[in-house]
Structure formats: C-alpha cells, structure tokens
C-alpha cells in the first residue's frame, strides 16, 4: 500500500505495533490450549491416528485448501488497507493469526510432548516461514493507509491523501507470487513429511 507520507514517516513503529498483537495472540493461544480438556485431546490423537488410514483428498480440494491457508491472513491484511476500519481490524487480524497458530501447536505438544514439536513443524513450519513475513509486508503499509483514511480532520479533510500507486500493486504481486510458490512447494513436500512424522509418533 503506497500512501503519500511526510518525509521521515516511520514504518518500524507500525511493525512493532502489529508484532505485539501477533505475540499476544501466541501467548493467548498457548494459555487456552493448556485448558483444553484431556478428553478432547485424546479424541484429537485418535483422529490423527486414523489419518494414516484415510485416502488423500481430491487434488482440487487439497489445492484450494492449501491456497486458502496461505492467502487468508496476508490478503485480508491488504484489503483492510482500503478501509478506515482497518486501524482496528489489522491488529485484531494479527492477534487471531498468532492465536490460532499457537493454539494448534500447543495442542500437538500437549498430546505428543517433544514429538509434537516435530508434528507442528511438519504441519506449520514451512507455511509459517512464508505466510508470517508476507502478512507483515502487507499489513504494515495497510495500517498506514487505513490510519490515513481514518485521520479526517475537524473540517472533514484528511491530513494527507491516500494514493494506491504502483508500489502498492507491485508489493501485492510479489507477495502473492511468493505465497503461490510456497503453497505449491508445500503441496509437494508436506504429505511425505507429515506421513513420516506421524508414523514415527503413532507407531
């Protein structure tokens, strides 16, 4: 998102601001996961065991599901830059991103102990290495843009105009290309890696 700025307008504070919410989400996710009843955790372990016996999903379903997992938070972060409400929802999106990631990882580690770390890495490791930087690359300029849209003065005039220029769309194109490539790589390596880790854990 390209926004006309005054000289020296900082982006680092916005990055730190969003990172704090992401980290809070990680903390909350871990705290909630520790309160999940043992019965539910036992059901999850049984489900993972049955996973080895299930046939793979249709290729189209797998591709769409993977693309959704890769694009949902970064693309939402980009779109929120076109609305003043993004000032509120961008931090909340970072909070949700961190929460659900941490909750999932914590459930696996609670069930399988140290082996759960391997399982979490197989499921989320590569994806997070791609999607977390992509999220912040789009969320930081979006926060700047949405903040400008929300910054309407008393006379109904914005402090500075919002311009969605070439940099905005180039950034989106590059990030989407990286996300798409990451999803394809994930589709190729994850089934084998996950199968290897699950057999090691559940056998």
Question: What report would you give on this structure?
Answer:
The protein has 203 residues and is mainly alpha-helical. The protein has one domain. Helices cover 78% and strands 0% of the residues. The protein contains six helices and no strands. The chain is globular, with a radius of gyration of 20 Å. The chain starts with 11 loop residues before the first helix and ends with a helix.
Short description:
The chain has 203 residues and is mainly alpha-helical.
- Structural class by secondary-structure content: mainly alpha
Number of domain modules: 1
Number of helices: 6
Helix content estimate: over 70%
**Could you state the order of secondary-structure elements as H and E?**
HHHHHH
Q: Strand share of the residues?
A: under 5%
Query: Based on DSSP secondary structure assignment, what is the total number of beta strands?
Result: 0
Strand count, sense and barrel status of the largest sheet are: none
The Cα radius of gyration reads 20 Å
Q: What's the rounded overall pLDDT mean?
A: 82
Poorly predicted regions: 2-8, 54-58
What is the terminal separation in angstroms? Answer: 49 Å
What's the helix and strand layout?
Layout: H1 12-33, H2 38-51, H3 59-79, H4 86-112, H5 114-150, H6 166-202
Distinctive features:
6 helices, mainly alpha, disordered N terminus, 203 residues
């Amino acid at each position: 998102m390209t926004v006309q700025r005054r000289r020296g307008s900082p982006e680092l504070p916005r990055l730190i601001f969003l990172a704090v919410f992401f980290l809070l989400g990680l903390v909350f996710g871990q705290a909630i996961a520790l309160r999940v009843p043992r019965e539910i955790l036992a059901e999850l372990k049984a489900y993972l065991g049955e996973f080895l016996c299930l046939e793979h999903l249709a290729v189209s379903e797998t591709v769409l599901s993977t693309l959704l997992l890769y694009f949902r938070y970064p693309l939402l972060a980009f779109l929120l830059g076109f609305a003043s409400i993004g000032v509120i929802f961008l931090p909340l999106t970072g909070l949700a991103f961190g929460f659900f990631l941490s909750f999932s990882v914590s459930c696996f580690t609670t069930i399988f102990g140290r082996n759960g770390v391997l399982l979490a890495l197989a499921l989320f490791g590569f994806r997070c290495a791609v999607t977390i930087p992509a999220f912040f690359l789009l969320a930081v300029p979006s926060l700047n843009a949405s903040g400008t849209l929300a910054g309407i003065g008393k006379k109904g005039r914005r402090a500075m105009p919002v311009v969605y220029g070439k940099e905005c769309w180039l950034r989106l194109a590059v990030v989407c290309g990286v996300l798409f490539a990451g999803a394809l790589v994930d589709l190729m390596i994850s089934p084998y890696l996950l199968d290897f880790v699950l057999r090691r854990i559940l056998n």
